[in-house]
Structures are given as structure tokens and as C-alpha cells.
Amino acid sequence: MKKTLLIALGALCHTYASAQENLYQIADSIRSEGILLYQHLQICRTGVELLEADTTGRVQLQASGFLSYRDGNGYMLMMPHRASSNRPVITSYRFDSTLNAQTARRHVGREMTTYEAEVWELWKMVTLMVQKDPGFKKVRDTYFMVVPMIEGESRKVYVLSAATRNNFFALGNDYLLHFNSAFELVSKQQFHTHNLMTPYGRKSSGHIHSESAPYISATDVCAFMLHPKAFAQESLKVYSPTFVSEWNFRDKTLDIIPRISQ
């Protein structure tokens, strides 16, 4: 009898350890994807600053938008010029892994590569989609940020909401779209069914996810990293019926634990 109990206890401990290890892997994957998404958007933010610092006005007159992608151990920012050709001329900035604008290498007036043309095509397609498709909710005082990512066989586009009001933070109303190699939409995921608009410096107990999105999302992590001072605390929790996810602003760490039923 004692041996049977020991075996059962051992199996239970093994099951718990395996479940906990799986949560560590999920948390690491979400954190990595959130940081990647943040880096894409941070590069585009830097692009705005570079345009504003361009005293010649040459790039400002030509650029029609900002797109970014991973390039080896660094990042590339490309600004398509206002042109009617299928593969327009661009201005590009090559950043190293530090994302430092001071060391970025600029190249004005080159043709897009085949890869860049695909990223550009995805961006145009989804930008038009969010304007015309009623499946993308339009929320007052926000606008959509479209972030295409093509890595290997993966073609995906994140759509995030950002606030147009100064000193306000928008969270939610965000989506992930997957496409095949023919640029056909394969799937669409909505992370939040609501949108939170809060002033900077507010204390918050966190927000709630449904059972269909049981963990914090990569878009949440990205938004928290873009706006580290949006909330007046060091960490923020995301609750679902089964899990609690906690993001630490200072350490940029993510923990996910099972939610204990009350």
C-alpha cells in the first residue's frame, strides 16, 4: 500500500513539474515574441525621429511610411518613397543589435529587394483590410499600427491599437493574421474583445482575458515595453479563468501560473 502511494505521489510530482516546465516555455515564447514585436515598432518610432532630424528635408519629402524587419543580428528600417511603381525606391537605415540611431547606416534611393517587396505587399494588403473590413473594430481616439513579419515560411501581420490622445495609453483591440505564400489569409486571431484607454501614471490591478486567450499576449508585452511608465507600479497582471500572467516592467520578466479557483 505504501509503495503504491509513493508511486502515485511520484507520478503527481512529475505531472506538476512537467506542467510547470510547459508554462515556463509558454512564458518564454510569449516574452520573446513580444520583445520582437516591440523592436519592430521601436525601430519605426526611431524612423520618425530620424525624419524630424533630417534638416535637408530630402527624406521627409520622399518617405511615405515606415516598415522594419530583422536583418541578421540587426534591424532594417525602410521608408518607401512616394512612387507608382510596383517596387518603389526606398530610403533604408541599417541598425545594429543596440538599435542605436547614432550608428545606423543610411542608404537613400535604392530599389527594394524581393524580400522587402513581400513585406511591403503584406503591409499594403492589411492596411487596406483594416480600413474596409468591419471585422476590425474602429475605436475612438485610436489608430491601427500594422506590423508585417516574414521569417522563413511564416507570413504574419500584427495589428495593434495606439492612442491618439497625449498622455493616454491604449491596450487591446489587437489582432494577429496569418497568410500563406500566395498572400491568402489563413487565420485571424483577436487577442482582446475590448479596448482600455487610460491616462499615464494610473494604478491598475490588470485586465482580464477570456478562456480563448488564457495567457498574456505578445501584443500586451509589446505595449508595456513601448509605454513602461503608463502604469504607476512595477508589474501588471493579466487574468483568465485558468491562469494569471504577470509582467514586470523593470526586469522585463514574465511569469505565468495556474489560477487557483476561489
Describe the protein.
The structure is a single chain. The chain is 32% helix and 33% strand. It is built from four helices and 14 strands. α1 crosses α4 (218-226). It is globular. The chain is an alpha+beta fold. The strands form four sheets. The protein has a four-stranded antiparallel beta sheet, sandwiched between helices. The chain has a four-stranded antiparallel beta sheet with strand order 5-6-8-9. Mean pLDDT is 85; it is low at 8-18. The longest helix has 52 residues, at 2-53.
**Category by helix and strand content:** alpha+beta
- Percent helix, as a range, is 25-40%
Largest sheet: 4 strands, antiparallel
Strand composition percent: 25-35%
Count of alpha/pi helices: 4
| Arithmetic mean pLDDT | 85
SSE string: HHEEEEHEEEEEEEHEEE
- Span of the ends, CA to CA: 33 Å
Shape: globular
Strand order of the largest sheet: 1-2-3-4
Radius of gyration equals 21 Å
Could you tell me the number of beta strands?
14
Query: Low-confidence parts, pLDDT < 50 over ≥5 residues?
Result: 8-18
Provide a short characterization of the protein structure.
By secondary structure, this protein is α+β, with helices and mostly antiparallel strands.
Question: Which structural traits does this protein have?
Answer:
4-stranded antiparallel sheet, alpha+beta, 262 residues
Task: Produce the secondary structure layout.
Blueprint: H1 2-53, H2 58-62, E1 67-71, E2 74-80, E3 89-95, E4 105-111, H3 114-132, E5 142-151, E6 154-163, E7 168-172, E8 175-179, E9 185-190, E10 195-199, E11 207-208, H4 218-226, E12 235-239, E13 243-248, E14 253-258
Parallel strand pairs: 11-12
Antiparallel strand pairs: 1-2, 2-3, 3-4, 5-6, 6-8, 7-10, 8-9, 12-13, 13-14
Helix pairs in contact: 1-4
